[in-house]
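Let us work through a complete example step by step.
Step 1: write down the sequence.
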Amino acid sequence: MKILLIGSGGWGFNHLRALVANSEVSRVYVADLNEETLKKVKTAFPDVEVSKDYRDFLHKVDGVIVATPAETHVKIALEVIERKLPVLIEKPIALTEKEARKIIERADKNNVPVVVGHLLLYHPAVIKIKELVKNEEIGAPYYMYSQRLNLGKIRRFENVMWSLAPHDVSIALYVFEKKPLRVRGYGRSFIQKDREIEDVAFLDIEFEGGILAHIHVSWLDPHKVRLVKVVGSEKMVVFDDMAQEEKLKIYNKGVDWDLYGNNMPYSPNVAVRYGDIFSPRIPHAEPLKEEHRDFIESIRTGREPVSSGILAVEITRILENAERSMRRGGERIKLQ
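Step 2: predict the structure and record it as tokens.
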């Protein structure tokens, strides 16, 4: 399998590292507009061919990975798809639902698989959470709460919601498998006020069945936090991606109706239940390598990937309406 990587700075270099180590990839090509970045690539991986123009390699490859800034995704992806080449596009796939749909419709027309880089859908802990919810091991799911915080990396074109929240929106859609009904977004721009590039944002999603998701993202926080909590009627699950060990913990805690008529003023007819805390064994797997495996398998078989273009369109729809809500002072918006 021969793969072209377009964009090798930052996260793109991680793609490159994983591709070079992948035994199923026989050849890697890299295109990047930055000459210093290309020099870094050649120093680290002398056998990789490089160019400032990705078109130099399109006729040589079986698939393309687009790891360029979000505002360039649509133009590059459409050109790649017109060459009938499978493509993996980093998140967000686009900055509007209309553009995201255009990519997927063009891919369908050309019978080309599209994978989108919602990396956490390949994380063993997130896969386990989905299993717990699906098998009703936490009871009826109530809500998800997530924090994705750090100091930097501040973007110039996309706000913090577009930069970080796609991860958590993708988790909510993947884990709950419920239709999103309404969305609300609110945040503030402190560093780039003149451009309205929000540095902190809060996103609320209401799903069918009464399930809620609350997402907090920021690139102005003193600590790096990668935390997801899913609360159910029987148990609660916490995924702390910054933990060195025991990244996933299941809490046998909850609130039950007190059948014996507890009439205390602060908890009428309910009883708080405290049980064991269990950390299940999570298989070791690097999500980026699993994402590449899924991409290569979709190229070979044509099957729909885990992080599909259809899912990416839904995520984009939610984020675009959340941004619309943000511009309207946090108004709840019904998803059509």
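Step 3: interpret the result. The two ends are 41 Å apart (CA to CA).
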